[in-house]
Design brief:
single chain; alpha/beta; Arc Repressor Mutant, subunit A; D-Maltodextrin-Binding Protein, domain 2; five-stranded mixed β-sheet; three-stranded antiparallel β-sheet; 10 helices; transcription regulation; DNA-binding transcription factor activity; WH-like_DNA-bd_sf; DNA-binding; LTTR
């Protein structure tokens, strides 16, 4: 049987189109014509020896073979890019100062920093885990090079909107605790006139304000059952049944679950923007490479939680 060597350039077009949700956008991102992208996708199906797309309404969806190919394509491209960075950037040196929300610490740092340090062992990385307000101030003052933060408004000139994520009511996997969610998830504690118990970060906190504003607008009474400066403490308190917390699904522990607002008698929460900010200086190659890896990891994390 003849061995097939997949074209990495074609695989990059394929994964980019899937990530952006449009192969027209992929053509624009990669600097190709739409006809060239179509030709690449046709070539990919020929190489795969099986259909990788099926019609879904007016658009296309992946077949089972397409989903399998996508997973392998990501792995091949990741190894290719890591190899290229290691060869070209073996002498890359310097320092990168990165700012992150606590939500992304465990979800992104191990994979991103592991890949980066294997390719660039001479670069020193300093990580600051802080709130959005603090991170925005630090990156504006040039005290950090990159900052990934939550915001509701449009990014300023040195920022880029990376994604919009749903805010969710989050509670324990098993119904327990003072807020006492009934088994049928109807009328969360408010049925008895009790206020909704909330587990939130201490002020100032954008997500805290969005949760309280949504409850106030719906005329639902609430109380602070637990407040902390630590996200891990919030996860633990909510898992223990002390109350509901409000976050995006990114980084949510297995001991917690998303509560359906309609079934629980709670207001729907708005989405929140995730933006990447850069210091207002010319970035060096080490900063640019870490930014590239960070954006890839964020896109993959967002895709996982939005498709779950």
């Amino acid at each position: 049987m003849r061995q097939i060597s997949f074209d990495l350039d074609v695989l990059r077009t394929f994964t980019t189109g899937i990530d952006l949700g449009s192969f027209a956008k992929a053509a624009d991102r990669l600097g190709r014509s739409t006809s060239a992208v179509s030709a690449q996708l046709k070539k990919l199906e020929e190489q795969a020896g099986a259909p990788i797309f099926r019609k879904a309404g007016r658009g296309l969806a992946l077949t089972e073979a397409g989903h399998t190919l996508l997973g392998y394509a990501r792995r091949l491209l990741e190894l290719n890019d890591e190899t290229a960075s290691a060869v070209r950037g073996v002498e890359l040196e310097g320092e990168v100062r990165l700012g992150l929300q606590e939500d992304f610490g465990e979800a992104l740092l191990s994979s991103v920093l592991g890949r980066f340090m294997r390719a660039h062992p001479k670069v020193r990385i300093e990580v600051c885990v802080a709130r959005s307000t603090d991170l925005r101030e630090r990156v504006t003052m040039g005290r950090i090079d990159l900052a990934l933060l939550w915001e509701c408004v449009a990014p300023t000139l040195n920022g880029e909107r990376v994604a919009d994520l749903p805010l969710c009511w989050i509670g324990p996997v098993h119904n327990s605790g003072s807020w006492n969610l009934p088994a049928d998830e109807q009328e969360l504690a408010t049925a008895a006139g009790a206020p909704v118990s909330l587990v939130l970060l201490d002020a100032p906190c954008l997500l805290r304000d969005m949760a309280s504003n949504a409850l106030d607008a719906a005329g639902i009474a609430w109380r602070h059952a637990f407040t902390s400066a630590s996200l891990s403490a919030l996860w633990a308190a909510s898992a223990a049944g002390l109350g509901l917390t409000v976050r995006t699904p990114i980084g949510m522990p297995a001991s917690l679950r998303i509560i359906d607002p309609q079934e629980a008698g709670l207001p729907r929460l708005p989405s929140i923007g995730l933006s990447l900010y850069r210091a207002q200086t010319i970035a060096g190659p080490a900063v640019n490479r870490l930014e590239e890896l960070l954006l890839q990891a964020v896109q993959e994390a967002v895709k996982r939680v939005t498709m779950a």
